[in-house]
Design the sequence.
């Protein structure tokens, strides 16, 4: 435990040492003061990115490659600051530049958790973010701008690739599928943390996932967020899945539908 202010504001309570917090603070200071303008720094991003962020980027790259030859869209359920969504978008533009049919769709309230259910509670492990409006990242406008810049730097950028769907998934997911009845899902990324929204997304998207498609979990077997595991048990069944993980990223696991 430490009482230092972490510049990475959504770090799980009590899991970082003072040294880790100091490292992130120093990294931010280094990025701000280092030689070169912001574009030059972004072009050399490995100089300024934590190892953990590189690990997650590699992890998402491997997951995208698993779904690369599967027909269907990518659904990112829980967008937060948008790093995962835009990783999938950049990978699609890079690895399959003429795939006009693959869309990357992000679902989020952009105002934090809509609510907390009984299934999300844990008797021992507590966190300040397990509350209504927890993990609030007001990133919608910034991501719209990021998407516009992304479109300006890809092949066939006049055809929409990335879409943000704002609202509670209990309403936004069925409304989206009513609007887009042709939807097939090749990769479903569940990063909602909570029981009810995870259950909703599984219930609506699973029937649209062919064999070979990929389900990605961010909080499976996570003591802080038990709701995701309970939703997967109810809607899919753990014993029906071959759940695998990466040796270099502690949170992400996945299953390929067989």
Sequence:
């Amino acid at each position: 435990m430490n009482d230092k202010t972490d510049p990475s504001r959504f770090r799980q309570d009590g899991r970082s040492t003072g040294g880790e917090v100091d490292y992130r603070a120093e990294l931010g200071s280094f990025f701000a003061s280092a030689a070169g303008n912001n574009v030059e720094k972004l072009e050399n991003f490995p100089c300024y990115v934590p190892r953990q962020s590189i690990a997650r980027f590699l992890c998402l790259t491997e997951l995208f490659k698993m779904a690369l030859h599967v027909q269907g869209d990518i659904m990112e359920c829980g967008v937060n600051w948008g790093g995962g969504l835009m990783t999938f978008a950049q990978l699609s533009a890079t690895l399959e530049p003429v795939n006009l049919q693959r869309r990357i769709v992000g679902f989020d309230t952009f105002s934090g958790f809509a609510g907390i259910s009984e299934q999300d509670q844990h008797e021992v492990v507590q966190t300040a973010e397990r509350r209504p409006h927890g993990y609030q990242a007001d990133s919608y406008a910034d991501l719209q701008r990021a998407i516009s810049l992304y479109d300006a730097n890809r092949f066939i950028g006049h055809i929409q690739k990335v879409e943000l769907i704002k609202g509670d998934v209990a309403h936004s997911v069925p409304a989206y599928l009513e609007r887009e009845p042709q939807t097939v899902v090749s990769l479903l990324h569940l990063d909602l943390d909570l029981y009810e929204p995870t259950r909703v997304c599984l219930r609506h998207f699973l029937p649209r996932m062919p064999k070979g498609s990929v389900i990605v979990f961010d909080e499976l077997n996570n003591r802080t967020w038990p709701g995701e595991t309970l939703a997967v048990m109810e809607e899919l069944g753990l014993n029906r899945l071959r759940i695998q993980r990466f040796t270099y990223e502690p949170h992400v696991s996945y299953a390929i539908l067989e």
User: Anything to note?
Assistant: The mean pLDDT is 94.
